[in-house]
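Bug report (template v2)

What were you trying to do?
Predict the complex of my protein with calcium ion.

What happened?
Run completed; filing so the output is reviewed.

Input:
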Amino acid sequence: IVEILSTEELTEKKVLVTAGGTQEDLDPVRYLGNYSTGKMGYNLARVAQVEGADVTLVSAPTNLNKPNGVDLVEIKSAEEMYQQVMELQEEQDIIIMAAAVADYRPVNREVQKIKKSSDELRLELERTTDILSQLGQVRDDEQVLVGFAAETEDLLANAQQKLKEKQADLIVANDVSASDIGFASDDNQVTLISEQGQKKIKKANKLKIAIQIFNEIMQLAADKE
Ligand code: CTP
Ligand code: CA
């Protein structure tokens, strides 16, 4: 990767990235999922690794290759992601929640395959733990905490609210309604939102976006010192 960050500020920093869409089992052959492919998170992990960071990638199932030199922790459900992230969070300098974490999971995971019977089947769902919010509550001041906001409407207002409610340092606001950017696409077009204000990043591939996100993170880290 060329034209990366100008400094060596990431060297030996501990960086945790989550990626992919979690899968919530309904029965042995079915799950509830989402369209996240993990590309944004994997690019973030790759950039951090190339820049000399000690990177852990907590990943939901994806079709992507494991980035070289990264500790890969594979999980499936929101609950498993939560457990792994909480175990690793304390030692991290930077945590980036790029994963599309399920908000709800089935109350029951059926042991046997659900058979079709009546014309209608109602699923009972319960809320998962909001990992980013938990991280916002337990972290210390030096840690940089980054979240994403996937929105199909009122992008900036909703993202601004997530910055505050989840006590993050940075929210990467992502319009997931457009098909040429966001989920599943190689390109993305995001707005970076912090207490300092909003910065619109022009449409680019996810590797370039990842580099710009780290540039912003390093500025926020410097401001904390
Ligand atoms: N997130 C999380 N744990 C969850 C749900 C979301 O850590 N159970 C994180 C995501 O990884 C992302 C941020 O919270 O960094 C925002 O996710 P998003 O789905 O945009 O927002 P929600 O807070 O879940 O609210 P909603 O889906 O209702 O917009
Ligand atoms: Ca959500």
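What did the reviewer find?
The pocket of cytidine-5'-triphosphate (ligand 1) is lined by residues 78, 97, 99, 101, 103, 128-132, 147-150, 162 (CB under 6 Å). The chain is about 25% helix and 25% strand.
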